[in-house]
Input
Amino acid sequence: MNPEPDLKILERKAFHSHWEDGFLEIFIGILFLTFLAGTILTSIGISHRWTYAVIGAGVLLFIVGKRKVTLPRTGQVRLGAKRMANRRKLFAVLITVQVLTAALLVLAWSGRAAAGPAAGFGLILRQALTGFLLFTVPFGAMAIFLENPWMLIPAFTGFLYESLQGILPKLWNASLTVGAGGLILLFIGIMRLRRFMRKYRIPEEEA
Output
């Protein structure tokens, strides 16, 4: 009997267990909520720069959570050749998106002097394309390569956030898009983390 299918199933389960902890959803939820917080602060005349510290705290929470909560329960996951190739594809997509987005933003800024209905329509299209490149493509790729459908939430709400810039008032736009998406992701992440900690026990706790 060929043991390869069984090994593939075990490798897939190990990979999924590593991402069942909810820390990714919690981090992206915090990131999206800082967009809303920054918009609120700016609207009342306060600098939004303190939100950078919140983002830094979110990154720290993700790293420490993986090391102190996830790894002691699941161990170090060794990816197979297919998943290693998928990870390289994901990195390639993210790098390509950053380059294309930067180029698009440069073109957008260079065309700000233009006026008229055509220029306004072009601005809307550029905003939609920016949202697609900045949110839909990378988070969509994460949903595919990480096999995590929850990543479609930031893919969609982030796209709406960019597309509705200048159409809805800034506070309404941020609240209905990244604010709502961030709250949903934060709730999902906390629920997944609680379920993960009940499902996977540290060996010393089981003894």
Remarks:
- The chain has one domain: 4-206.
- Residues 29 and 184 are 7 Å apart (CA to CA).
- Residues 113-118 have pLDDT under 50 and may be disordered.
- The longest helix spans residues 81-110.
